[in-house]
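Dear Dr. V.,

Thank you for agreeing to look over these. As mentioned in my earlier message, I'm a first-year student in the group and I'm still getting used to reading structure tokens, so any feedback on how I've presented them would be very welcome. I ran two proteins. I've put each sequence directly above its structure. The first is here:
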Amino acid sequence: MRTIPILAVLVSSLLMSGCGDLVSLHPLYNEQDCVLDAALEGRWENDDAVLTVAREGDTYTVTYRPKSTPSEEQTFEMRLVDIGGVRFADILPANGVLGHMFLKVRVAENELRFAFFDSEWLRQRVPHEDVRVAKDNRQAVLIERTPELRKTVEKYAQRPEACDDEILFRRAPARAAAPADEVTVQTDPGTHDTTYSIAKGNCRIRWVASGSEVNRGVVRQYADCALPFPEQVSLISKLMSRFLKDAAKKDAFRTLSWGRLFPDGPKDTEMAARLAEAAKRSPQWDAARGLPKTGDLNGFVRKLANEASIHAELREAFRNAGLDIEIASVEKVLVLRAGQLPFFDRLSTREVKASDRLPFDCQTWFKVSKLTP
């Protein structure tokens, strides 16, 4: 059986003080039996954190923000399913690392209660693998596929000893909505990180400027946005304008950590598609093997992305602010057959074959510098 390295996310996942140790390789739900619950939606909080639940079609996006360290905000994809007379949430980290966590969920008036479907008592009774994830740490992983997994969960759904202690959140007081396109600024008193946020409709983009001396001048971008790339750049320009009002930050600004070109969920695909198209055009790319003909993959993709200017609108926005950017580093390049990509219809009009193996995603960092006359 193939096991999956899940420590990085699961040790620090949903609720760092109470996260279950039991995770699953397979989901608890079938697409046809997921349920929706409007009572879950909105902002919830307790002494430790703020929890936001937003519906996205037939799924939910759950955002967990610790009050002590808001820059460590985490996002999860959640689906609800009723099994054995109990409502369960199947939660998966939004960064794509595999490992489903199951929680019992109860909503009553203005209180949200949930408990991880996990306990020492339960682990002694369900089939699982103990996966070594560190020298002195092992992770309990459910290995049953969904049909058998549902039967197991149903068997113990009504047993209180099968779950960890309940965690209580109360509905947060309503807040006055910020005007559309307005940049809000919040500084973490612990880390001194400063977060600049902007929203338009269902699109939200944040810049987090590091407050530590070692990372001075480094900005991390977080985006949950399906707007076309040029519209996103318009919002980023407003973020940057507010950010650059701080002269010290402007002088120190040296790195923009973009994240993935093609993150999970309904996101814009423009830069990912441009990268794939550029690889197809390049005589140095072997589309049959899905590798550059010479050199390493990361270095090739970095150079190709700059030469193709896949970030042209973003660069123009920076130049309008007296700055310049270029892709300085990429990691974890993903390559797939073009026919498997969700934007293949676009690629097919550019003489791309379904069998062509093309790069389309990577972790990306931009170098920021002052624009020279």
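The second protein is here, in the same arrangement:
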Amino acid sequence: MRHEVITPGRLQGTGVRAAQDIADYVLTYRNHKLAVIEAKRRDLADTEGLGQAKKYAEKLQTRFAYSTNGAGIYQVDMTTDAEQYVSQYRAKLFMDIIDQSEKSLVFCATQDHARAVRDARNLRNIG
């Protein structure tokens, strides 16, 4: 997963650009973008970033879009339009299909997220 610049920002003239569209997280595997994750503060609704996540998923052509506040996780399957709350990201499913010997760089928004990623990776390496 990594931060992903969606657009460099609209050109406003004289070389000045508007703010970039940047996804909080993009889950990729072998340069194939799988999912966009928009993370918001815990005091906001878990669906606060849903519109943003869908917009970015559409631009990046990912199958899944997620919106979270760290407590709840809302998932959209961009292929089937199915929407639902989930208890975890599809990261475990993705971890099951990737080559674990490949190196990965993961950017985490919080320590809780970092621990969850570490634990998911460690469980995969043990099992």
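From my reading of the second output: The chain has a mean pLDDT of 76. The CA atoms of residues 3 and 25 lie 5 Å apart. Does that match how you would interpret it?

Kind regards,
E.
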